[in-house]
Write a structure and sequence with these properties.
alpha+beta, Alpha-Beta Plaits, 465 residues, 10% strand, single chain, 31% helix, 12 strands, Globin-like
Length: 465
């Protein structure tokens, strides 16, 4: 296939050659050929792939003269020196979220390198997806401490840049190595996908400012726990923190994992991903439920060990940036409790776990799904009023009835019926009308008479689509 490389096309897409692993933000591999063009103008209708829009939307791949200057700053600490180039930063926030005692968003100095343990700092620098951060020991930069050895890969981050890892060569339109800022990593870097970076071809974080968004396939569908968590990349961040930071220093559960395989964090992340509704990466690669049960047989796990495992997993999830909303926490913690209790039971002497059980699948708790409630801290949204039909206009569900129901209305009634589904609304039309007329739906206030009359007319006309 040749050496993996990305070549910039002048005022055009990224031409990717010989990179076999290209994943979406959930960690799911895309089926791609050995040569593929990826959009970097932000306008393609078939993201992440180029559809030629760059030729008509005025995309310019020149660097912005007002970009953050190329300057590597040095922050000396007791154990090591942290290097940082703000001109390379893509503002992913992994460092400030992960080690806030060292990396300070919106503050000066940005880095206080004596604010955490050495291993935490090294882990944070290695996790920087833009390659802006580096380390120096004894006055000499040491990239080998933070540049991992891994297969060439491109992750298409959610509403953000391409995150490239594995020493994929980056070439300019003439086939020469693309110029880099001082101290930039050659093993991992972030490339702009929104078309607005001030440091093209590299990401400068402008996707946040321009509200760059990937298309949503079906906004009415309830996301899986896997999707809501952030997919396999988020779960892997969590398990690496758990097994790399918390387990080794814990006297209660540390000995349980002293002989774990090097890829154990990735295995556990794959297990959780599949349980939470993701792809079958665990059962496909490691053997499914039977394999997981076999790892606990004869271990004699105690309740105290189980409780500590749950406690530290929750702490790792918080530090890894997994969602902290009430709905996700209820489902996430519910699975940790359920799964860890089963692990303790299966580990006892004489235990005979049922054979050939399917992989468990975990879902939201009862009706506590994303958007099923209005947060008390959320600013009040001012929605555009629906367009009501004229007196003699024929009423349709798609044009006139569905827009009457807000996303909140739909979510709050999903336990009974789907107000955005013609099939559901037509089947339950009389019950919905009764609730609307009595003022029990919506739950935050009765409809005005003109909206109620539209729904009555739709029911009377036979609930047309």
């Amino acid at each position: 296939m040749g050496d993996p490389r990305i070549q910039l096309q002048r005022n055009g897409p990224l031409l990717v050659r010989s990179v076999e692993t290209i994943t979406n933000w959930l960690g799911e591999r895309l089926a791609v050929s050995s040569e593929v063009e990826l959009c970097r103008c932000g306008g393609s209708a078939s993201k992440p792939f180029c559809d030629g829009t760059h030729a008509t939307n005025g995309f310019d791949d020149a660097k912005d003269p007002k970009r953050v200057p190329d300057r590597q700053d040095t922050y000396a600490g007791q154990q090591l020196t942290v290097l940082d180039n703000r001109g390379t930063c893509a503002h992913a926030g992994f460092c400030t979220d992960g080690v806030p005692g060292v990396f300070h968003a919106g503050q000066e100095p940005f880095i206080t390198p004596s604010g955490a343990r050495m291993d935490e700092i090294i882990r944070a620098v290695a996790a920087c997806p833009s390659g802006a951060l580096g380390l120096a020991v004894g006055g000499h930069e040491t990239r080998e401490r933070v540049d991992s050895i891994r297969e060439p890969a491109i992750e298409i981050s959610k509403d953000g840049p391409y995150r490239v890892t594995g020493r994929v060569a980056l070439l300019d339109p003439d086939g020469n190595p693309e110029a880099r800022n001082a101290g930039a990593s050659l093993e991992h870097y972030s490339l702009c996908r929104c078309g607005h970076s001030r440091n093209k071809p590299f990401c400068s974080g402008m996707h946040w400012s321009v509200l760059f968004r990937d298309p949503v396939a079906d906004p009415s569908r309830t996301p899986t726990l896997f999707e809501w968590a952030g997919g396999l990349p988020a779960l892997t961040r969590m398990t690496r923190l758990f097994y790399g930071k918390y387990v080794p220093e814990d006297p209660l559960i540390g000995p349980l994992f002293a002989n774990m395989s090097p890829d154990h964090p990735e295995r556990v992340a794959a297990w959780l991903g599949e349980v939470f509704g993701g792809t079958k990466s665990y059962s496909g690669n490691y053997g499914g439920y039977t394999r997981m049960v076999s790892q606990h047989l004869g271990k004699g796990l105690s309740e105290a060990q189980r409780a500590r495992w749950v406690q530290l997993m929750v702490r790792s999830a918080e530090e890894a940036g997994l969602p902290q909303d009430a709905e996700f926490r209820a489902a996430f913690l519910g699975y940790l409790e359920w799964g860890s209790h089963l692990a303790v039971e299966n580990s006892q002497p004489g235990a005979r776990p049922p054979a050939n059980m399917p992989m468990p699948r975990w879902w939201w708790v009862c009706d506590a799904t994303p958007g099923s409630r209005v947060s008390a801290l959320q600013p009040e949204a001012v929605a555009e009023p629906p367009v009501l039909p004229g007196p003699d206009e024929a009423i349709s569900f798609a044009k006139h009835v569905r827009p009457l129901f807000r996303p909140y209305d739909r979510q709050s009634m999903m336990f009974a019926f789907d107000l955005w589904s013609h099939e559901h609304a037509a089947r339950h039309a009389n019950e919905i009308l009764r609730r609307l007329e009595s003022g029990t739906m919506p739950c935050d206030g009765a409809w005005p008479s003109e909206k109620l009359e539209v729904f009555r007319r739709w029911v009377a006309s036979g609930t047309p689509e």
